[in-house]
Amino acid sequence: MNKITIAIDGFSSTGKSTVAKQLAKALGYVYVDTGAMYRAVTYYAMNNGLINESDFNSEALVYQLPQIDLSFKFNEALGYAEVYLNGLNVENKIRTLKVSSFVSKVAAVSKVRQKLVEQQKKMGQDKGVVMDGRDIGTVVFPNAELKLFMTASAQTRAERRYQELIERGDQVEYKDVLENVQERDYIDSNREDSPLTKADDAIEIDNSNLTLDEQFNKILRLAKMTIEDLE
Ligand code: DC
Question: 142-169: string of b/e by CB count within 10 Å (b at 16+)?
Answer without folding.
Answer: eebbbbbbbebeeebbbbbbbeebeeee
